[in-house]
Write a structure and sequence with these properties.
The chain is mainly β. The protein folds into three domains: 10-104, Immunoglobulins (Immunoglobulin-like, Sandwich), CATH 2.60.40; 106-229, Immunoglobulins (Immunoglobulin-like), CATH 2.60.40; 237-294, no CATH class. It has one helix at residues 214-217, and strands spanning 10-16, 19-25, 35-46, 49-58, 62-66, 77-86, 89-93, 97-98, 102-103, 106-109, 112-116, 122-128, 143-152, 162-164, 168-171, 182-190, 200-208, 224-229, 237-239, 243-245, 251-253, 258-264, 271-278, 287-294.
């Protein structure tokens, strides 16, 4: 019987003659007599359901299938299932063994982000789990992804809730290692809007820009969901003739005429100047706000 074979199928991506293939490798039983393998390739067609795309019987301890954009496309989750049996006695076969799922396409790490309105930069890695092919001799080998953001559930237009450090990234081919065959990074920052508007949802989308490789043409990677956590904001005031209330609640008056620094951040380029002119006439020395400049 062959029921106890540890075949351990594993899917890895490879370029074969300039085209993207997936390779299913499995452990040959040793020192068993000659064995054949039945390899079934399938893709996830809907949650929990698989669709067969290719099968073969082979003496080799590996099997290839091409990502041709028809049977297997970018964005597919792929499995290979291997059964071993003795030549001439196909009824003596092992239990079928599944590989782990292999997602072919663009991945974002992390797959979702929760960030706060604190100005911090969060690194988002964009990687391709399949090799970047070079369709022609004159091509610079790369896939360019156009990045965009969208605020979810917003009723009225306004400034975006998140900002990216780049509008596009280039994925340049490199030897496949782990789950990455090409990678780039971009930073994500939550916009500090000084408004108590609750936690808000956004998403980051990527789209390949005019790829020459047919495999990439009809492919749109999955979005990244970003939750922006609202932080309490401070307020300071200068009003009337001017009474001033600071961020931490101190109150005082400034009756002088001139231009003054109302507040300045010690951590970033932000400051507010006020100009006060005489508004009391001859009877009383009173100054009022007449101008403001903010940077």
């Amino acid at each position: 019987k062959l029921t106890s074979l540890a075949l351990q199928p594993v899917i890895t991506p490879e370029l074969v003659q300039g085209r993207v293939h997936l390779k299913c490798s499995y452990s040959p039983p040793s020192p068993e007599p000659p064995v054949q393998y039945r390899v079934l390739w399938s893709r996830l067609s809907s949650p929990g359901k698989r669709e067969q795309v290719h099968h073969e019987t082979t003496l080799q301890s590996f099997s290839y299938v091409e990502m041709d954009g028809a049977n297997l496309r970018l964005g597919d989750t792929v499995f290979c299932t291997v059964t071993a049996f003795r030549r001439g006695t196909p009824e003596q076969q092992s239990l079928p063994e599944d590989s782990r799922s292999f997602y072919a396409g663009i991945k974002f790490l992390p797959e979702s982000l929760e960030i706060a309105e604190d100005g911090k930069e969060h690194v988002l890695t964009v990687l391709s789990t399949v090799p970047i092919a070079c369709p022609g001799q004159d091509d610079s080998c790369k896939i360019t992804l156009q990045l965009s953001t969208e605020d979810l559930g917003r009723q009225v237009p306004g400034p975006p809730d998140i900002a990216l450090s780049a509008c596009q990234v280039d994925l340049l081919p490199e030897p496949c290692s782990g789950s990455s065959c090409a990678a780039a990074t971009v930073t994500v920052t939550a916009a500090t809007d000084f408004a108590q508007d609750g936690n808000r949802g956004s998403r980051i989308s990527a789209e390949p820009v005019a790829p020459r490789d047919l495999l990439w043409r009809a492919y749109t990677p999955r979005d990244v969901k970003v939750t922006v956590r609202d932080l309490p904001t401070g307020n300071c005031y200068s009003f009337s003739d001017p009474h001033i209330i600071t961020f931490d609640g101190w109150r005082y008056d400034n009756y002088k005429i001139g231009t003054f620094l109302l507040c300045r951040s010690e951590s970033r380029a932000f400051e507010v100047h006020v100009r006060q002119w005489d508004c009391g006439g001859h009877r009383s020395a009173t100054a009022c706000n007449c101008g403001v400049a903010a940077r």
